[in-house]
Amino acid sequence: MTPVLAVENLVVHFPARHGPPVRAVDEVSFAIAAHETLGLVGESGCGKSTVSNAVVGLVVPTGGSVRVAGVEIAGADGRTLREMRAKAQMVFQDPATSLNPRMTVGAAIGEPLLVRGIARGAALRERVASLLTEVGLRPEHATRYPHQFSGGQRQRIVIARALALRPALLVCDEPVSALDVSVRAQILNLLVELQASHAMACLFVSHDLAVVRHVCDRVAVMYLGHLAELAPRDALYTTPRHPYTRALLAAVPEPDPALQRAKLRVPLQGEIPSPAAPPPGCVFHTRCPIAVERCRREVPEWRCLGETMVACHRAGET
Amino acid sequence: MSGRLTPGIAAILGLLAIYLLAAIFAPWIAPHDPLRQVLLLRLRPPLTSSPAAGLFLLGTDDVGRDLFSRVLEGARASLIVGALSVSVSLLSGTIFGLLAGWFRGWTAVFILRVVDIVLSVPAILLAVLTVAVLGPSFTNLILVLGLTRWPRYTRVAYAQTLQIATLPYIRAAEMAGARAPRILLRHVLPNIAGPLMVVATTEFGLMILFEAGLSFLGLGIQPPSPSWGSIMSEGQNYVARAWWMTVFPGICLFGVVLCVNLLGDWLRDRVDPRAQSR
Amino acid sequence: MTSVPMSGSAITPALAVDDLTLAIGGVSVVDAVGFSIAPGEVMALVGESGCGKSLTAQAMLRLLPRQVKQAAGRVLLGGEDITALPERRMRRLRGRRISMIFQEPQAALDPLSPVGAQVREASGLARAASRDAVRRMLAEVGIADPERRIDQYPFELSGGMCQRVMIASALIGGPAVLVADEPTTALDVTIQAQILDLLRRLAAERGTAILLITHDMGVVADIAERVAVMYAGRIAEIGTTEAVFAAPRHPYTSLLLAAIPRLSDAPKSRLAVIEGSVPTPPEYGVGCRFAGRCPLADARCVAEQPPLRAMEGGHLSACWHAERVA
After folding, report:
1. Which of residues 113-172 of B touch A (CB under 8 A)?
2. Tens digits of per-residue pLDDT, A200-231?
3. How big is the CA angle at B219 (ends B213 and B224), to the nearest 5 degrees?
4. C-beta separation of C255 from C272 below 8 A
5. Do A101 and B274 touch (CB under 8 A)?
6. Whole-model pTM?
7. Among residues A1, A36, B41, C220, which is most buried (max CB within 10 A)?
């Protein structure tokens, strides 16, 4: 069975005004099957948002391949992209700017159906009403404007719009980062339910490891444009193979003082290098607690270690 | 909070409504034919009345036409010129701004260079030249005003479009499958309309002044049709003997420009918080 | 209702707040908030957006926005009431006895001035004598190579580094109290861990009392010895972090904790949700402000405001049904 999303050796470079291009994404490969949620985690500037934008064709890849339901979109023309987007939809981070303030909620949710000629008039209103109900809002909300809703409700509206075309792939770019804790739980519950009921493949981009663990089946960790590790959820959280994954997990403060204070502290030293001038060899070696001479010279191979894929010379040594 | 409908704004809106009604219904309100000359009654002061012709509320001009009727008729010319020229420049300027902001690259470079060139030519010189070549007429007047003023709107529309184009709801519209014309008309335009309207109100006042200036120079509305500018132009020869010929159209001009500018300031206060919170 | 929950020690608290009430246009947005912090202690003020935690923080330094008025209450800095101090004297206290750091370190620094100069400015020391002091301070907050960094501009530094600079300029005057308003919210998780470690170390070594404003329960669990949970302008629950997390005695705290996905819970399980949304100040009723969303609420909760009461375990909860909270 073809995966819903297959990314192979994806490279995205952004030209810089001065100096070398910014290597936002470098040789990233992964695939997502139907019914599956893949988490993409990493810190700011690691390239995770660029990957999500490349997957839906909002960013043009410099190299490599992105196939959505078998259709290549790297280098594809406008028509192909437009057709692909009927199958891949996106939920954005900030619900405040994800909706046109001058457009009613009904018009926003119905737009994908209208512009693609799928539904209009009464049929369109009916579809919008059922989408609103599906995300926990009421059909009469369709005539209101975005500013009449809270952040959580707006994110529900954004999700309804993304579901309108019954996409095979849903890309969520930090969908709960801008929301308050209590609202965050509502949206996460909704996303988990919808992903299951619609049997969608889902690419879930987040910096929050606990959230990713909650909603994802497999998790990919990115650092400075490269994949560091990709593993099934339980493997990644119980036996992380990459020192960066370990450091990330150690750095997440658990909301439980007993657990948190008993934690072994291995804070990463130093700062994230600039993606315009990534270090040679393994990009993580400048902050890695176990780096050796080889890590400074050789780029680690993306290899299999049990059910885990990892890019580290020293993974599996102990 | 400025931006609410205060009594001051209500008064301004009321006054503008009076101007508008006067301009629309000028032929019915005017007590006299604005073009009919009664040479026996020339240069009569305000409130002159004659048993044969009736009351001349604002007096008569140098060839004995009723000044009140002429100012009313002139309101029509001034407001129509203002509205049409603002429409022409608003429409063309906004389209160029949207295109430059959306496509960026060479389209933007080209449009913005043209903007710079047009803005660097003195508007009055351009107007005088155009009228000199094409001859003075109502259409040419509108054309000249429209052609010299569109860059103002282009600059605003361009900057706003650039800003809006990066927002997630525009990307969402692309994801929905909307094409450029729909995105520009349904998503970008409504969200940049506020700042453009603010520019348009200040421009409206300016256009009326501009028309008055051109008519004053004899390049605008042609006699015998009155406009505030042409009435004042005729009156300047008689300032010492018949002050009313310049003062009354001047007051009308001053009033409408002031009202429109105040309205523009108020609109700016009203739309700015939205622009911030977007 | 003016009980100031003390931190247990007999010494004068570094910062004590009693019955603090802040109002915007006559509507109280922070209502009868009281707490105290001992020297060297880290106390967290936690809550969702709009709960009044940031305004409370700003009131500690009398840096409230113009439209916010302090309607009642006292703020005691080392036992001295600063509520009525003239602005001139207040200005001299800031930076020397109480300091503040903010969420966006890059926005809080002047982009056109070298960071060393900004730290020195905060110290009030003379130029010649102070370069050494500034360099030592930068080293103390963990900035490697301070001799080079001291002459750099904020844009040359990362977000984490800028926050270290902010902390250095907040502490160089030797204040007894540091108010930290979401100091790690804009930072990445590995950098957040570094900054939290730094704050913890500074509290221990310098004896600085830290009031930490945050929305992140993980940060609270990591660093705070005591925590006050705020909801809609009031303190819902206050006590030691262990006690509040282990046995929350306010339904809001309990639900909030259950709503957070944890590394330890079952994946894809339904998270607890708090129905509805936070009321806005005009919607505050006479009773408990959580009543509209609370599963335990009854007629009394709607009619009567619950006072903070002592629970077993030594913490205080403002709930009529505190004993029934699971």
Report:
1. 167-169, 171-172
2. 999 999 999 999 999 999 999 999 999 999 99
3. 100
4. yes
5. yes
6. 0.86
7. C220
